[in-house]
Amino acid sequence: MAHKIQMLMMALLGVSSIGNAKTQPAGTEGMVIKKGKIVYTEITIKATPEKVWQVFSNYQNYPHWNPFIKSLEVTPEVGKHIKVFLQPASGKGMTFTPRVLNNAPAIELRWVGKLGPGYLFDGEHVFQLHDNGNGTTTFRQFERFRGLLVPFMKHMLDSNTYNGFKAMNEQLKIEVEGR
Q1: What is the model's pTM?
Q2: Could you point out which of 51, 109, 110, 123 has its C-alpha 20 to 30 Å from the C-alpha of 30?
């Protein structure tokens, strides 16, 4: 009976496991949203983190190369809200106003967004740049989702969201390495 209650709570909260996961994707330590579904991608780019950040943080240029985040208005400042328009290739676009949690040039941009009053569908989106020490950068893009709607949106997250992250990463690589 206790196991059934635990499974029901996991489904309602959108949690894939209870307790500490034995293996977490790189860079997910210190997240505000501690448990939930993670969509994780990474790509190696032949450039320094500073060069990658130069392209990544030129938000006005997103419409020209970014297939996933079509616009990001307002320079991200910690504690402030920004306006973001996302549109996966095979999905409907949406505008939302997440709150910026971190903006460390050439290291990380992190925000948290909520649908409704919270705990319906919350997402903590992270972009990290890791210097590999050999002239390349690992660009990580991931998001942890929690809330009552997460189990019902699993297919969309595993397809549209994941594919949107991958497409953006690949285009960022092309944009940076082509310079």
Answers
A1: 0.82
A2: 51
